[in-house]
């Protein structure tokens, strides 16, 4: 019989997969920020494409957070009850991020075909706020949960990865 590590049996440890998803989400937000900057500089995507990009990003981030709230956090709380306060704090962040995404979507829905310099500061402020909260949230979550997730083996997640671990290629 050939001995293998638990992490090897899972191919990629769950915490490492979470980090990969966070990197991908950060890149998606950077692309959205670049698109917004290009639009206001007069050489970017039309507003409908920015809205579509925002909707795509927001949908993926919501899917990720909903998956954490419904699958990952209950599994972690069961195995590591001492982390319940951390998980509660992360859920609070999810609600704040959702609210910020709603504000950004409303602003992008109101963009005119031609850039309005009067709107630029407000849109950039809103995407900056979303980015700051998201980055802080991800750093805190990674610090508190990556090693915990890497230590876990959830058999039902092996062949059917939960939403919080999905990236575009998986969707």
Q: How would you describe this structure to a colleague?
A:
The protein has helices at residues 6-9, 14-40, 47-79, 84-109, 117-151, 155-159. It has a single domain, classed as Four Helix Bundle (Hemerythrin (Met), subunit A), CATH 1.20.120. The protein is mainly α and 171 residues long. The radius of gyration is 18 Å and the shape is elongated. Helix 2 (14-40) runs antiparallel to helix 3 (47-79), helix 3 runs antiparallel to helix 4 and helix 4 runs antiparallel to helix 5 (117-151). It contains 6 helices and no strands. The protein is 76% helix and 0% strand. InterPro entries: Dimeric_xanthone_biosynth, Hemerythrin-like. Residues 18-147 form the Hemerythrin-like domain. This is Hemerythrin domain-containing protein.
Short description:
The relative contact order is 0.19. The protein is mainly α and 171 residues long. The longest helix has 35 residues, at 117-151.
Coarse morphology? elongated
* CATH superfamily placement: nmb1532 protein domain like
Helicity range of the residues?
Answer: over 70%
Task: Describe the sheet with the most strands.
Answer: none
Number of domains: 1
Task: Write the CATH architecture name.
Answer: Up-down Bundle
CATH fold type: Four Helix Bundle (Hemerythrin (Met), subunit A)
Cα end-to-end separation: 36 Å
Number of helices: 6
Find the count of extended strands (DSSP E, 2+ residues): 0
| Nearest-integer average pLDDT | 88
Order of helices and strands: HHHHHH
User: How much of the residues is beta strand, in percent?
Assistant: under 5%
Helical/strand content category: mainly alpha
CATH class: Mainly Alpha
Low-confidence parts: 1-5, 7-11
Radius of gyration: 18 Å
């Amino acid at each position: 019989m050939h001995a293998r590590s638990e992490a090897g049996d899972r191919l990629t440890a769950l915490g490492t997969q979470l980090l990969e998803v966070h990197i991908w989400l950060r890149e998606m937000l950077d692309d959205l920020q670049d698109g917004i900057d290009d639009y206001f500089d007069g050489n970017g995507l039309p507003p409908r494409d920015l809205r579509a990009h925002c909707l795509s990003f927001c949908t993926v981030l919501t899917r990720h957070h909903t998956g954490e709230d419904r699958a990952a956090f209950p599994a972690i709380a069961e195995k590591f009850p001492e982390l319940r306060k951390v998980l509660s704090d992360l859920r609070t962040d999810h609600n704040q991020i959702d609210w910020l995404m709603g504000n950004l979507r409303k602003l992008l829905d109101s963009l005119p075909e031609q850039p309005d310099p009067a709107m630029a500061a407000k849109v950039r402020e809103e995407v900056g706020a979303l980015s700051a909260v998201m980055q802080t949230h991800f750093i805190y979550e990674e610090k508190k949960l990556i090693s915990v997730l890497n230590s876990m083996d959830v058999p039902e997640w092996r062949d059917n990865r939960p939403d919080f671990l999905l990236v575009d290629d998986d969707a």
